Amino acid sequence: MQHGKYRFIAGFLVLPLGLYVLFVVWPFIQSIYYSFTDWTGLSPDFRMIGVDNYTRMLDDAVFWKSLQHSLLLVLVLPLVTLGLALFFAFMINVGGRRRNAVVAGVRGSAFYKIAYFFPQVLSIAIVALLFQFAFNPDDGLINATLEAVGLDSVQPDWLGDPGLALPVVMMVLIWSTVGFFVVLFSAGMASIPKEIYEAALLDGAGRATTFFRVTLPLLWDTVQSGWVYMGILALGAESFAVVQIMTVGPGGPDYSTTVLPLYVYQAAFRDGQAAYATTIGVALLVVTLAFAAIVMRLGRRERLEF
Amino acid sequence: MKTTETPPPAPLDGARGPAKIDSGPRPTGRGREGDKGGGEGTVLNVFSHGVLVIWAIMVVLPLLWAVMTSFKTDEAILSSPWSLPDSLNFEAWGRAWSQAHMSEYFLNTIIVVGGSLIGTLVLGSMAAYVLARFEFPGNRFVYYLFLGGNSFPIMLALVPLFYVMNNLSLLNTLHGLILVYIAYSLPFTVFFLTAFFRTLPSSVAEAALIDGASHARTFFQVMLPMARPGLISVGIFNFLGQWNQYMLPTVLNTEPDVKVLSQGLVELATSQGYKGDWSGLFAGLVMAMLPVLGAYIVFQRQVVSGLTAGALK
Asked: Which stretches are transmembrane (chain A) (predicted)?
């Protein structure tokens, strides 16, 4: 049995591990190293400059704006998305007519689950483009609807208005992710034994009590991992794509929507400041790890077995 | 669900399957049937049903609007965004397909996703199998190395990666993009499949080894077929992720002739925007949207379990 075991292990690991180290791990290590250099990315020459990039970053107003927006996204998006998703999932699975102590979903729950999931299978690029046109102030879907219901005077310049652009970005991100969590939580709720609900019902618990005393505690592990997942998404590729595609600039107007991953991208590939870009990237890494650590810590509860 | 009146300690026959569609009368109409105060229940019912319906409309309407708009003329799009198209106008679809290079973007996407999906599943299951089934020094280290890739911000790695790719002459090539897709799909794939291989019984593999099969042969002929459900789940997850990928190609793939679908659409939005060809743009968007939506509706159950399986672990 032991014959050739190590050769087999090495043979099976060499390709996946090699690819992963070359394209993922090595660039990560490099980028932390580069953040202490003056590398432009345009020429192969660079020298060590210590923490100059970091002191520069602390004086950079655009960095602070990006950080502020990213922090806002990581606070608001999970809260709103998971809140909505929990409500929908509860209504769909448990919130139906409650007669004779039988727990059921509302009418049409199967349809809701299918429809809500649509955005999840679409590319975030498609979603961003679609809403860019829906929010077009002159002939987009949203302002046309406002006009149709008689709100002719309310025709906001959505993405052109520094005060509204970031909320629009958030709305698009929420729109595209709620469905996933509805389905995720539905699966979690389906695995909660019916007897627990029925016992709660027989004891006269209303919907709100059932939700906060039964569903939420039993679903807590799923909610917590969903929270981390949503936070990473709000700090990562999704927020980058939506801001980069939808907003003017991108990141505007007047830096009102810029986020950390976008600023990394712009510093590296637009401004030719690769080393400085990796410095902002390190800040993004710190924010991401801090977020995950905080959620894990705050969310720690006694595990309920059922 | 039963509609006849039965006394409270009801039989459990209706309780199986929470997703079953209630065929009883609308709860809004007969709120007094609840065991508690009827008035409050009705208001709550109307409210919560209303919210569910509104969200469904908010999700479906923009998609329908896009489909509708792709059949309209440019004047009609600008003058009345809400009206139905006069006739089914497929002209814009043809324009988007050929002139706006949608056909090339589709082809590039199919090549990249096809190659990277196969590569991800083969390499991912090999690594996961070894990590799940064999004791060796460094096992835990390699496992956590893969796991870490799930939570680090990818953008940080992309700056040096651009130059790594450039040095290897892989920048702006489809095979380079395939390798990167595989590398960035491995963390989740390895994580998911390691957990899956651990759940499989070891007796079958041991029997094969005693019969003289090599480790590699045992893996390909015994373990992989047993792991099929897990491979399908993680395959669907990766297919959607790679098909919809936007950030990686945006950074690493900037030449026009190697662009993939999501990038091509953004390109299309910019160029058609200048030309004022809105119908062409919407045709492109819908063209990219429909195959995935169609596949989702057909394989609904598999897609949902594939996408949610990982998060539930």
From this structure: 12-36, 71-94, 114-135, 164-185, 227-246, 274-296
pLDDT at B26: 39
Residue B292 pLDDT greater than 60, yes or no: yes
Whether B81 has its CB under 8 Å from any CB of chain A: the answer is yes
* Identity at B302, one-letter amino acid code: Q
Domains and CATH numbers, chain B: 101-276 (1.10.3720.10)
DSSP category for residue A131:
H
CB contact under 8 A, A204 and B19: no
Residues in chain B: 313
Q: Is it the case that residue A293 has pLDDT exceeding 70? A: yes
Taking only the tens place, the pLDDT of each residue in A156-189 is: 788 888 888 899 999 999 999 998 898 888 888 8
Alpha-carbon span B238 to B307, nearest angstrom: 9
The residue whose two tokens read 């830096």 is A255
Q: For residue B169, what are the contacts with CB-CB under 8 A and spacing of at least 6? A: none
CATH topology of domain A61-298: MetI-like fold (1.10.3720)
Q: Which of residues 2-21 of B touch A (CB under 8 A)?
A: 6-10, 12, 14-15, 18-21
Q: What is the mean pLDDT of residues A142-149?
A: 79
DSSP result, B243-304: HT--HHHHHH--SGGG--HHHHHHHHHHHHHHHT-HHHHHHHHHHHHHHHHHHHHHTHHHHH
Q: What is the DSSP letter of A99?
A: B
Beta carbons of B52 and A88 less than 8 angstroms apart: yes
- In a mutational test of the B interface, the residue from A26, A102, A192, A233 whose CB has the highest number of chain B CBs within 10 Å is A102
Select the residue of A19, A116, A232 nearest B59 (Cβ to Cβ).
A116
Beta-carbon contacts of residue B185 (< 8 Å; ≥ 6 apart):
B116, B120, B124, B238, B241, B242
Q: Which residue has the tokens 């041991």?
A: B206
CA distance A244 to B297: 30
Q: Count of CB contacts below 8 A, A vs B? A: 341
Nearest-Cα distance to chain A for B59, in Å, is 7
Cβ atoms of B181 and B112 closer than 8 Å: yes
Partner B contacted by A179 (CB < 8 A): yes
Asked if the model's pLDDT at residue A99 lies above 80, the reply is no
DSSP letters for A73-86: HHHHHHHHHHHHHH
Q: Helix, strand, or coil here: B176?
A: helix
Q: Which residues, including other chains, have CB under 8 Å from residue B294's CB and lie 6 or more apart?
A: none
Please indicate if any CB of chain A lies within 8 Å of the CB of B93. Answer: no
Is A1 touching B (CB cutoff 8 A)? yes
Statement: residue A151 has pLDDT above 70:
yes
In chain A, what are the domain boundaries?
1-27, 61-298
Beta strands of chain B (E only): which ranges? none
- Which chain A residues are within 8 Å of B66, Cβ to Cβ? 130
Instruction: State whether residue B213 sits within 8 Å of chain A by CB.
Output: no
Q: Report the distance separating Cα B247 and Cα B181, nearest Å.
A: 11
- What is the model's pTM? 0.83
- How far is Cα A66 from Cα A63, in angstroms, rounded to an integer? 5
- Chain A residues with CB under 8 Å of B79 CB are 139
